[in-house]
Amino acid sequence: MTVSISYIVFFDNLFATFVNHACGVFEILKLHVEKLHVKADGNRGHPLNNFQMIMKNLKHCSDLQTQILKFVKDLESSYNIALLIIVGVNILTVVLTGMTAIIKKTEPGEMLRMAFVSGGALCHLFWISWLGHALEVQSEKVFISAYQGEWYDMPCQLQLMIIPIMIRSLRPCRLTAGKFYIMSMESFGNALKMMISSFTVLNSMR
Fold it and tell me: pLDDT (tens digit, 9 = 90+) per residue, 61-103?
């Protein structure tokens, strides 16, 4: 049992580390996109006099975006099966232990134990769903920062070069469980409704 818990904790910590790394890179990319026409020292020159600087910043943003999108794609392909198992086990655990808690309502100790197990599984599902949601929200901010940035201060020919960055940011990065359950708070809410419905049906069949 202790070994199993250690594996779960290790998996969660590693997954959270990868997701937080991706969120951090998206935040860095967002800040770079917002300051495309600003020098490293914070001073602004006339855009036409800083053509090479802006070109360099655009290339850096494009390269950084390519790297982080590949990282998220690799993360998705590496974890989607494991996440499917975790989501399935957590949902099943919540439903079965919740039902057991009702059946054992005459035994307070056993009912409380089942309630704690159910609550732990629910918190675990919330945690991994929130991580996926955080990544999705952070990736969407890149497009917003590009749109709301002071791109109009850039030379006209360079304004068009920011469009590919915006286009690649239109589709938010998402992690899935088995390619069909999106790791997000919306999916967590839907799963919670489904668990409550299943719990109600099982309880009515007693």
Answer: 999 999 999 999 999 999 999 999 999 999 999 988 888 877 7
Q: State the Cα–Cα distance between residues 53 and 22, nearest whole angstrom.
A: 26
What is the token pair recorded at 123?
A: 């918190």
Instruction: Tell me the backbone φ, ψ of residue 164, rounded to 5 degrees.
Output: -55, -35
Rounded Cα distance between 3 and 123, Å, is: 20
DSSP line for 9-38: HHHHHHHHHHHHHHHHHHHHHHHHHHTTTS
Of the candidates 195, 206, 177, 193, which has an alpha carbon nearest to the alpha carbon of residue 85? 177
State how far the Cα of 147 lies from the Cα of 165, in Å rounded to an integer. 10
Residue 46 tokens read as 């006339």
Which residue has 């099982």 as its token pair? Answer: 202
pLDDT tens column, 28-55: 999 988 887 665 444 555 544 577 888 8
